[in-house]
């Protein structure tokens, strides 16, 4: 009986390791400005940070930025993508929930004005188990959002302060 228990435990460990390796992993995310993000938290099991993209990237209120994500699944399973945005001091807001679409367009609005706006891109496969608890893998990019409509207000203030 003792040997049977040890055999069962070893079998369970081997099965668990095999299923963990089948997670979806982000290969890259490209934005319509030409920035390429190749970081992946799940890559090699520990993530490969910091970002490939010089941060922060400057965008303006009114811009539309399109993201195209590419990911792979070792088992060739169907992939789903999710895109969320976190404004300064705010919480992540899902802009495109889980779907087969790997393309998302962010229409930058005035509520996102400020520094360090994070765009979070997540991926999962169709095996029903999210490796990280909320997705199989994720990456992100950070943007600063300018509001050109405020230039006529801010410029005189800055000039006054400098003099």
Secondary structure elements and pairings:
Elements: H1 2-20, E1 24-31, E2 36-37, E3 57-60, E4 64-73, E5 79-86, E6 93-99, E7 103-107, E8 114-125, E9 137-146, H2 151-162
Parallel strand pairs: 3-9
Antiparallel strand pairs: 1-2, 1-4, 4-7, 5-6, 5-8, 8-9
CATH topology: Immunoglobulin-like
Major beta sheet summary: 5 strands, mixed
How many strand segments? 9
Low-confidence stretches: 1-21
Instruction: List the secondary-structure elements in sequence, H or E.
Output: HEEEEEEEEEH
> Compute the gyration radius: what is it?
21 Å
Distance between the termini: 86 Å
Short description:
The protein has 163 residues and is of the alpha+beta class. It has a single domain (2-162), classed as Immunoglobulin-like, CATH 2.60.40.
Describe this structure in words.
By secondary structure, the chain is α+β, with helices and mostly antiparallel strands. The protein has one domain: Macroglobulin (MG2) domain (Immunoglobulin-like), CATH 2.60.40.1930. It contains two helices and nine strands. Strands 3-9-8-5-6 form a five-stranded mixed beta sheet, with no helix packed on it. A four-stranded antiparallel beta sheet has the order 2-1-4-7, with no helix packed on it. Strand 5 and strand 6 form a beta hairpin. It is elongated, with a radius of gyration of 21 Å. The N terminus is likely disordered.
Q: What attributes does this structure have?
A:
163 residues; alpha+beta; Immunoglobulin-like; five-stranded mixed beta sheet; four-stranded antiparallel beta sheet; 2 helices; 19% helix; elongated; disordered N terminus
């Amino acid at each position: 009986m003792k040997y049977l228990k040890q055999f069962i435990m070893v079998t369970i460990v081997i099965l668990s390791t095999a299923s963990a390796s089948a997670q979806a992993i982000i290969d890259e995310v490209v934005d319509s400005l030409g920035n390429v993000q190749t970081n992946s938290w799940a890559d090699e099991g520990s993530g490969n940070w910091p970002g490939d993209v010089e941060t922060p990237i400057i965008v303006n209120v009114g811009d539309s930025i399109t993201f195209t994500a590419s990911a792979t699944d070792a088992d060739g399973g169907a992939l789903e993508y999710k895109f969320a945005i976190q404004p300064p001091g705010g919480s992540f807001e899902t802009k495109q929930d889980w779907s087969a679409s790997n393309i998302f367009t962010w229409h930058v609005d005035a509520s996102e004005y400020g520094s360090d706006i994070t765009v979070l891109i997540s991926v999962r496969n169709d095996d029903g188990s999210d490796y990280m608890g909320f997705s199989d893998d994720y990456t992100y990019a950070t943007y600063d959002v300018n509001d050109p409509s405020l230039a006529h207000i801010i410029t005189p203030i800055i000039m006054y302060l400098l003099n």
